[in-house]
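Internal ticket #5521
Category: modeling
Description: The requester needs a full-assembly model to guide mutagenesis choices. All entity lines are attached below as received. Residue total reported by intake: 1154.
Assigned to: D.W.
Attached entities:
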Amino acid sequence: MDMEILQDYLPEARELLEKAQEDTLRLESEPGNDEILASVFRAFHTLKGGAGFLEADHLVSWTHHLEDLLDKLRSHTLTISASMIDAILKGLDVIDDMLQQLAHGESPAAGPEDLGNVIQQLAAGQTPYLQALTAETDESGTDATTCPSTDTTLLASQRITVDGHNGIYIERADISSHSAPGSSDEISEAEFEATLDALYGNQAPGLVDPPEQFCPDGDKISPEEFERVLDHLHSSQARGYDAQDRTAHTQPASAALKTDPPVPRITRQDQSLYAQSQTTTPAPIVNLSARSQNMPEAADTTLRVDALRLDAVMNQVGELVLLRNRLASAVSSLGEENEDMARIAREVDLTVNDIQSTVMRLRMQPCKRLFQQLPRVVRDASRQLGKEVKLDIVGEEVEIDKTVVDALSGPMTHLIRNSLDHGIEPPEVRQAAGKPRSATIRVAAIHLGDKVRIEVSDDGRGIDRQFVTQKAIDKGVITTDQAARLSEQEALELVFRPGFSTKDQATDLSGRGVGMDVVKETVRKLRGHLDIQTRLGLGTTIAMEFPLTMAVLPVLYLRLRREIYALPISSIESLLDIQESRIHRMGGRSVYRVDGTQVTPMVDLGALLNDRPLRLGSEPIEGVLTERGLFMVSEVLGNEDSVVKPIDFLAEQTWYQGATISGKGNVVLILDPGALIGHALEYPSTGKMPPTDRRGAA
Amino acid sequence: MDIQQIMQVVDASFAARQSIEKSLREIDRRALNAMVLVKRHGNALAGYGVVAQAFRERAASLKESASHLQGTIAPLIQARMRILQHQRVAASFSTMAQSMARLGLDCAPLKNSQAQSQKFIAQEETEARGILLRLIATVDTLQEGIEEQEYVVTNGRIEAALAEDTGAPLVRVSRDMGEAVRTVSNAIRTYRHQLESLEHESSTYI
Amino acid sequence: MKAAPIFEAGNHRWWILYDQDEHRVIDSNVYVMESNGQSIILDPGGFEVFPQVFAALVEVVPPNSLKAAFVSHQDPDIASSLPLWHACNEQIQWHIPKLWDGFIRHYGALEAPLQDIPDEGGDMLIGGRRLEFIPAHYLHSSGNFHLYDPEAKVLFSGDVGAALLPPGHGAWVDRRDKSGRAFEEHITKAKYFHERWMPSNAAKKDWINRVCKLEIDYLCPQHGAIYSGDNVQRFFEWFDGLNVGTAINE
């Protein structure tokens, strides 16, 4: 496989695929839109062409069938139906799989036979359902039997063209060709297959869809015929059957377009009859770049860059940031007499900040990339479940770090499915409850300072906390004692626990092992924060907040006795002087009265990380107020823009997000506030650490 | 100078030091709070970020000045206590001299010791006064630092007003910073008055 | 001289003032306990080191908080600064062994308020907290008391536990050493002091029986370093096995 071509092909193919899916979904509401039909056709065509270059034969074959179907749709030979859209969408999924395989350097395996047959049958103008019932009694009168069997056949071979490219040569076998393998006068179907197999290993698809016009109609091979044969042969170079293009490179036969006969219904059984021999000259197929001519002409201003290179730049900027911090630290220890150094350090600081934000922008991608798969998910799932759902998408243009976009695709799908499966009621139920039959799922991306918030909300039945709590007890996720201590919100958050699934039987849609716990874990790994809000009977909102960038992490350094830790600034609300009179005990837990209205859980990091509670009044204590609770520490030291280094020596279950290197050159562990608060709430009486990691910072 | 007066100054030093330390911690926390706020709002508050950074740097240098303060108070107290010690010795000498005088005796070595003692006290007084002046100078530096800090706070107020539409509670943060600075400023001013009155006393004593 | 905290719980604190700058006199520790804004100074030290003790003291407590002083016995390294303290603060109540009342006044504070502690001991209140006078007669003085704070679990043990340490020494017998090696090392510097200054094995037994009943987290001697945690028990065991009064008792 030509890796260079592959590198070019894959991203483009993915874009085409996404576009095709979007278009196909649009076809549902605008079935007659020729522009869209043409666009989807072109997508398959281009995909096929590139696949040919890569000798990904199954992909060629697969896209070919889809292209064929679309060709008939755009020429209005067939009219689009819901089952066709289904089949196209599923077909797209298969292409996606195949692209994945390509990305792993494998040659894609054959697509699923059932679906392949369905697509072919649809292209043949049959409804697969009918076909299944009436397989033997094909009512079609215009089958291939009308094509008389002749003594001639087409020969195909692959040779080097004059300009040095691989070319496919088609010849009429009745005129003996020097290139024809075994220049026999007659090639049987078996021989033809054998030829194909010889050309393409043992993977050539069977003969399919022989068009009627292959019936002898003269000495000429019409462009249409030519195209078809090529397609069957999976030419690596076949371009779309396009009158204008074709005229430039192949025999002009634009008339053939207009005289396109209706596509005949020919079933497999008839295929033996299609092979015809005609014409004379080998016709090298023009070698075109796999790059699509349909791509927008933005090449001058945009540049496709390998994500790995971006990652490399980001890592290097990370190192630069750390060096900058060390420089700043070193210069500040020089004292005031070193004005020059101080000025240089300040300028380095500013420059590094600029580089940092530029690189950060390089990595930003619009949430559209994340959201565009969702209409499809909603469509499929709502059909399957018999629910009526409208999807509102807000904030597609909001940009977020590429890592988040990449990692969140699975969780987003899961959230949507989950909402459809568990949250949204069937239309009758909704109607009975006085709600509109059609439910709404809203997906929104909102820019909030240094964060992006992504929300998935529905107007479904909401989550019943008691039910959730009971389930959690039944499943052994929590004990009855623990359940009794849970606040309403904590009860709700049980759905994020591993091993929790509110449905007794895993449904096809949302209960496939990847659960809400995976969503939560993904969010955590992205240094995000997950929040769930629900109102019984009214709906549920799951909100995820992510840092705008993963490139740098502004942290606050804090001291816990002799050890130094870091907390991500994004999680911090403010720093407080702890006043004893504001500490209260509630239900066996310490809470802190921040002001007249806010009471928040209090977590003693001394108890949690040192096994030795901090003693108010006996040692210095400061408070760090986060969104989820107040942390007691010995001292807050200062802030720094830092870079996270993953730590792999810690167990999975950990209170640390990673480590960083402080300006003084020390390795400092970055605490995960969510995990710490969660743990403290769960085990209010002990400060015990999980046995997996008892070590603090060095 | 009256020992009670010295004790008052020692008490005042203790109180001033505690108050300054507490306020400086408070100032530092306010500055960090402002930094956190700025960081959390991304680039929108970059202007305020500069102020917050300056505030924090000034707070650090105030801390530094305050530690010099402590380093000067201790020797002053030691010097004053040495004076007390020698006054005590001198008092014994003078009691002895008086009893001898009552008996009509004159003891030259005792007189000599008395004189030595007085001389020593005078030396210590001079040294104590020197330390006191240094202490006042340190307090001056601290006050200058506070003035700079007040200037930063004013800048912060302006930036906060400019950035009001970002919705960040900068105005409140600025006010908190201002309050913390005012507290330390008051503590230092009071302390300075006490030192000045001690200085006045000691100069008249000499 | 330096000040270091020993115990801190809200408004209840203990400090040690240690490592004095004057080396011509024996190096002594001075302890301060503060409770609710009132403080007491234990074995306030000699006349010569008064200025540095005072300067170190006012780093940790304001001088006007000083309400009382405790004098374990009559020695000059313990009580000869009395008149100077008295000059600074006439309100200080001096808790001294009754046996030594008339002797201690010789230091030159005839008018100072001395509160005699009877031989059997007793207690006192400071800032709302009760401190106990634990009899420790003949260790080494014939009228000798230690002072116990049951809340902080601090025993001020006067000359018991004393060690002769070089200048720059720390305030603690290494607290983090679990092996006991640090104690072993330290105790070599305490051995001669106890053998020679402690006159009576019987007194020693009596004292050990008495203090073994107390909960002690910090054993604070007037010379040397503080024993805490396991080192407290180690000291008792060591002292129990030590032959004292060696000038006549070889």
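Resolution: model delivered.
Comment from assignee: The mean pLDDT of chain A is 74.
Ticket closed.
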